[in-house]
Write a structure and sequence with these properties.
The chain is α/β, with parallel strands linked by helices. The protein has helices at residues 18-34, 49-54, 66-77, 81-85, 119-132, 218-227; strands at residues 38-41, 59-63, 87-91, 103-108, 133-144, 159-166, 172-183, 188-199, 202-214, 230-236, 249-256.
């Protein structure tokens, strides 16, 4: 299963998440520390890459979803020429890419790493990142911190309203999560993203994609990063510096330690 958002990519930018308000300033600050060029894996519709380019950083974005990249390209076309020229995008898997250059900063924001379904896929991704990272560069990984015991509350078929957004034409879009399968051995969650578009005088239309997300414990992530040759130089649980043990996210800033253990 691949999370390409084939039917729902056009809702991504209107479906706001708290991180949408907090992670962009964080990444802009990190870019000011490490410089460019910057590689973003899972760049989606350009939510992070475009602000980086507008602030003067060169960004290379990769994503597997052609639907998301098409939206990104439309937005890119509307940028001032200088920002437009700072962005390169390509449809590639984050587990297998060779770009012939290295980067000062590599990002996997907003849980995109969790689309990889296995340790093998995660290792392949981290190996590619290691090979593309400058010796004095940094790699930033963001993964959701679900906490202990969430599996106890998993109910297949449970439908939860997550958000509602009002459109300019008077319609509104409501997003629901519908739980499907939980594989605790593989640490895989499968669920549906369902968007219902409604209006006062129109019948509701539904758009749905089935997504699969892998969840991680803190020790799982630390082990993968260590064996791939990274050391964690800063860690936090939210973009304001909340301790990693107290936040809803794992945000790890990593550097090359010079030697892989795998």
């Amino acid at each position: 299963m691949t999370n390409t958002f084939q039917h729902t990519a056009h809702f991504y930018d209107i479906d706001q998440h708290p991180a949408h308000n907090d992670d962009i300033p964080f990444y802009l600050h990190q870019a000011s520390q490490f410089g460019s060029p910057i590689l973003e894996l899972g760049c989606g519709t350009g939510r992070i890459a475009i602000p980086l380019a507008q602030e003067g950083f060169s960004v290379y974005g990769l994503d597997l979803s052609q639907e998301m990249l098409s939206i990104f390209e439309q937005k890119r076309q509307n940028l001032p020429h200088e920002a437009y020229e700072r962005i390169t995008i390509a449809q590639k898997a984050m587990t297998d890419f060779s770009l012939g250059t290295t980067f000062q900063l590599i990002l996997i924001p907003f849980h995109s790493f969790q689309a990889l379904p296995s340790d093998e896929a995660a290792r392949n991704c981290l190996n590619c990142i290691y090979d593309h990272l400058d010796e004095d560069g940094a790699f930033i990984l963001n993964v959701s911190h679900l906490g202990d015991g969430f599996a106890e509350y998993w109910q297949t078929g449970l439908e939860t309203q997550e958000s509602i957004e009002f459109l300019e034409d008077g319609q509104f879009v409501t997003r629901y999560t519908i739980l499907q399968e939980l594989d605790q051995r593989q640490r895989l969650m499968t669920f549906d993203n369902l968007y219902r578009v409604s209006g006062m005088e129109t019948e509701a239309e539904e758009y749905r994609d089935r997504l699969q997300v892998r969840y991680y414990g803190e020790d799982d992530l630390r082990h993968l990063l260590n064996e791939a040759g990274f050391e964690i130089t800063n860690e936090m649980g939210w973009y304001d510096g909340t301790p990693v043990s107290d936040g809803d996210e794992f945000i790890f800033v990593c550097r090359k330690k010079g030697e892989k253990t795998n």
